[in-house]
Design brief:
The chain contains twelve helices and 13 strands. It is of the alpha/beta class.
Length: 374
């Protein structure tokens, strides 16, 4: 099968490409900047193409002649990310339909069982992308995951860096929702299975064997990482403030952190787990949380080439903001500095708005003329 992988330089994309090659597939790897492909050892075994999902000409060229598309694009940065996701999904759907693509696989997010109006903007956008891709008429499989555990994963790095940089975890009382993490290696197996499963368009919730409140996930991480991190429940913390502080504490892009934090108000757990029967090899054991975290935290042996390393561990091509400092004094100082900076900026902004209030808007004058006759 010839597969276009969008977002090849991203966390999942950079690790799924070699998995697809090992399965015997031909891979066309899409990069917004093809010069960056040189950082990935597997690039020499792929067809590397320039692909910007917001440039329709590159999308059409990218899908031409492929059997399947693996769609790994999420625009969570900036206030217009939902519109960017919408535009990109429409363009991809149209290009796939025109090119006769046989299958689209989209890595989405768990959609909580609540009224759609209550979903976070981040999850609503993921759901909209699912629908737009499915409406193309091309059989579309959406894989819905919550926290993906593995070094370099955005959600995992948020957990790692918050745990290291906060000596005491202040937990909002509303953060009692449950989450169901899944190991990266199980996500990769689900993607491979989704490319070959014989089914009409549908979504699969994919999750690991463990479910727990998010606060317990932080506690389990700290225990496995050998960090002493007592937790204190704090009432009245608004979601926006928690997102801002978490964004300041971590090196992960702030807009991404804030979007993910908003999603934690609802349970992020799988509704059905039939993906294990439909997508995974027989007797494939799901990796538990403890083993997943230990593999993610394992220090890579620099003498071992990247192609021979555990995909759960850190890779040379992971973004500069990933990784930790071990949770010692340096981590605590970095956390204190980040929180102080965020609070100072917020206070300064509040004082500025108080001293320089925006001028009141003037309502337009009411017209005294008669309306035109019909």
């Amino acid at each position: 099968m010839k597969i276009l992988v969008t977002g090849s330089s991203g966390y999942v994309g950079s690790r799924v490409v070699p998995r697809l090659l090992a399965e015997g597939h031909t891979v066309r790897a899409g990069f917004t900047d093809v010069d960056k492909a040189a950082a990935f050892w597997w690039a020499q075994h792929c067809e590397v193409v320039r692909l910007d999902v917001l440039e329709q000409s590159t999308v059409a060229a990218g899908v031409e002649g492929t059997d399947a598309v693996l769609y790994l694009v999420h625009s969570m940065a900036g206030g217009d990310f939902a519109e960017k996701d919408r535009t990109a999904a429409r363009g991809m759907a149209r290009a796939c339909a025109d090119a006769g693509v046989e299958r689209i696989v989209y890595l989405s997010g768990i959609v909580p069982r609540v009224p759609e109006a209550e979903l976070s903007e981040h999850i609503r956008s993921r759901l909209e992308v699912e629908r737009l891709l499915t409406e193309s008429g091309v059989p579309t499989i959406s894989l819905r995951a919550a926290v993906i555990v593995g070094a370099g994963s955005t959600s995992f790095e948020i957990i790692r860096q918050i745990s290291e940089r906060l000596p005491v975890h202040a937990i909002p009382v509303w953060m009692d929702s449950r989450v169901q993490p899944i190991a990266l290696v199980d996500v990769l197996e689900a993607i491979v299975g989704a490319l070959r499963v014989q089914t009409a368009s549908r979504c699969y919730d994919i999750g690991g064997p463990d479910r727990m409140p998010y606060a317990q996930l932080l506690s389990r991480y700290a225990e496995i990482a050998q960090l002493n991190r007592p937790q204190v429940g704090i009432p009245g913390l608004p979601t926006e403030l928690v997102g801002m502080l978490a964004g300041a504490l971590t090196d992960v892009p702030s807009a991404t952190v804030e979007a993910l934090i908003e999603s934690l108000q609802h349970d992020m757990v799988a509704g059905e787990c039939d993906f294990t029967d439909d997508l995974l090899p027989e007797e494939h054991p799901l990796l538990g949380l403890e083993d997943s975290i230990r593999r993610a935290l394992a220090e890579p042996d620099e003498a071992i080439p990247a192609q021979n390393r555990d995909p759960m561990a850190a890779m040379p091509f992971d973004p500069g903001w990933s990784g930790g400092q071990g949770g010692g004094i340096a981590s605590a100082l970095a956390g204190l500095s980040a929180v102080t900076s965020a609070v100072t900026s917020s206070v300064a902004a509040a004082v500025r708005d108080t001293l320089n209030p925006a001028p009141p808007t003037t309502a337009p004058a009411r017209s005294t003329s008669s309306p035109p006759s019909a």
